[in-house]
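call fold(seq) -> tokens
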Amino acid sequence: MGAPEAATADFRGACQQFADPASREAAIVRFRWLADAGHPAACYNTGVLLLAGRELAADDVAAEHYLRRAAALRYTGSLRPLAMMALRGRLAATRGAGGDVRRYLASQWFARGWQAGDAEARRLMLRHLSCLSGCLLLCPWR
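ret:
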């Protein structure tokens, strides 16, 4: 079994472990280890856990780090949470920024998800962004 197969098997094991409330802490340790090793789905899971603040203490900076890493590794599912973080002013670039900046950056993440085939990203973009026509004109991924 090569390295990618071993990481995939380890990730599946961590997912099964996470399903059992008694072993969630151990699963989270495995997710973080895999995320730090560059496993895209583990980056996403770790980012979402940090964003939600249920199993781990909420940490927007760390959540953004892991979700951006998952996006860089072409994990399409990470684009929607990044868009919602931008929309809510929870990304580093949008903290303290006005609504126009937040909407513009959110549109960039939604558009990337939409272009990658995520129909939910398209639906959320249409729902949350009233400036859709302007965003699409400015979008480098159109």
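The radius of gyration is 16 Å.
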